[in-house]
Specification:
This protein has about 180 residues and is of the alpha+beta class. The chain folds into two domains: about 10-100, TATA-Binding Protein (2-Layer Sandwich); about 110-175, TATA-Binding Protein. It has four helices and ten strands, in the order βαββββαβαββββα. Strands 2-3-4-5-1-6-10-9-8-7 form a ten-stranded antiparallel sheet. The longest helix is centred in the middle third of the chain and has 17 residues, at about 70-85. The radius of gyration is 20 Å and the shape is elongated. Belongs to the TBP family.
Length: about 180
């Protein structure tokens, strides 16, 4: 199944600025497109003007970056936001970032017999009366794939593209 192709659709990163307390009211009023309603959510929701990644910004100096399609794109958006925070007077050094989740769609270019695959391993869940896909968990990782009869899949829980490819390889080994 070396011809399986995947496309990363969303990357979630955590971002930390050490020893910084952020004034969320100030940030919300200085970032165009930022929303802050502490009655509803304890952070600032901010979508970059370029329709790139979005951020959830917390007073603790921690943030979540969601919606990037590449790690490089996320890092560029984080650098831009870091510059904006510096322009507001915050003493933020480099942000520490960590990929928490990558979501990718996979095209396997073949149909799957989900019943047959489900019988091959205990790392799978298949209940067609509840959900039309098979959940394939890659042992020893947080990566899972939703596989569908048409030969498509969705990968969740990966922290790198290497983990996505390893998962695709494990699926190939299991169903061959």
């Amino acid at each position: 199944m070396a011809d399986a192709e995947y496309k990363v659709n969303n990357i979630v990163l955590t971002v930390s600025y050490k020893d910084v307390e952020l004034d969320l009211e100030k940030i919300a009023s200085n970032l165009e497109g930022a929303r802050y309603d502490p009655e509803v959510f304890p952070g600032v929701a901010y979508r970059t003007p370029e329709s790139g990644p979005s951020f959830l910004i917390f007073a603790s100096g921690n943030m979540n970056c969601v919606g990037a399609k590449t790690v490089e794109g996320a890092e560029r958006a984080i650098e831009k936001l870091t510059e904006r925070l510096r322009d507001m007077g915050y003493d933020v050094g480099g942000a520490e970032t960590e990929v928490q989740n990558m979501v990718a769609t996979v095209e396997f270019h073949r149909n799957f017999d989900l019943e047959r695959i489900a019988r091959k391993s205990r790392n799978m869940e298949y209940e067609p009366e509840v959900f039309p896909g098979l959940v394939f968990r890659t042992e020893g990782t947080s990566v899972a794939f939703l596989l569908f009869v048409q030969g498509t899949g969705v990968c969740v829980g990966a922290k790198s593209e290497e983990e996505i490819q390893e998962g695709i390889n494990r699926i190939a080994e299991t169903i061959e």
